[in-house]
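Case 294 in the screening queue. Each case pairs one protein sequence with one candidate compound; here the compound is 3-methyl-2-oxobutanoic acid. For every case the pipeline is the same: read the inputs, emit a complex structure as tokens, and attach any notable structural observations.

Predict complex for case 294.
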Amino acid sequence: MSTTFTLDTSTSRAHPVPEPVRRLTVPSIRGRKKNGETAEPIVMLTAYTARMAQLLDPHCDMLLVGDSLGQVIYGLDTTVRVTLDLMVAHGAAVVRGSYRSVVVVDLPFGTYEASPEQAFESASRVLRETGCAAVKLEGGEVLAPTIAFLVQRGIPVVAHVGLTPQAVNALGGYGARGRSEAEAAKIRADARAVADAGAFAVVIEGVMEPLARQITGELSCPTIGIGASPACDGQVLVVDDMLGMFERVPRFVRRFDDLAARIDTAAASYAGAVRDRSFPGEAELYIPKAKAAG
Ligand code: KIV
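Case 294 output:
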């Protein structure tokens, strides 16, 4: 038996791929925004598994292994209990399943806030053990020195400002941010600080639309919005939200499918076929060939 592998020389990947694909790079994403304008918006979705990464990869510029996996995959109530081990396992799966997109892995709560050194330990482990290109961390001015520390040591960082879900206990919920002038000014200062510290992109989550538009106009690096503004340089959604896997649909989510309903129909039809013994059918069985005569 011979198996032909196509070696993807851009990644040394010995998986069969239809044709070698060159992975986008952090500088190419950063360079999408030129003189304050982004001609081609950055397309980002979350992904947590290799198969989903394969399906999303051709359509995306960036795949985010978000700590939202705590809720989406593991049924946790917040992201606060997500561990670095979980992020590493899912990050590696998404890198294995993707060829083109820049893969970014979230640093979970408690793995980077204490000091720049702690952040470097966590981030370097994530890069080493997953093969991803960058990490994302939540926070603004307070985390700017940490972002500078990582970037100066070769770790590309996406920052995350506005509604920062890891701070849910401090914020008291997931309501949109930047309603008051003081809060809006703080979020603007956060965005400026993380961009000045060297983040190559800034996720802006759950803020008043004019604020996200204003920040996007002020930063030289790309902004990626979620519940933010169409003026952002790119958009990100949690893939399961976008596919219609959950009944609850936050205001900022558009469902591009109704996958939960389709899974329900498929599961009901499988259950019916098992119960009425129409599955498995003859075509789904291994039937011994009749012994050759003689
Ligand atoms: O964890 C996540 O999925 C995220 C996105 C919502 C931006 O941080």
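Case 294 observations:
- The pocket of 3-methyl-2-oxobutanoic acid is lined by residues 46, 64, 66-68, 106, 160, 203, 205, 226, 236, 238 (CB under 6 Å).
- The chain has eleven helices and ten strands.
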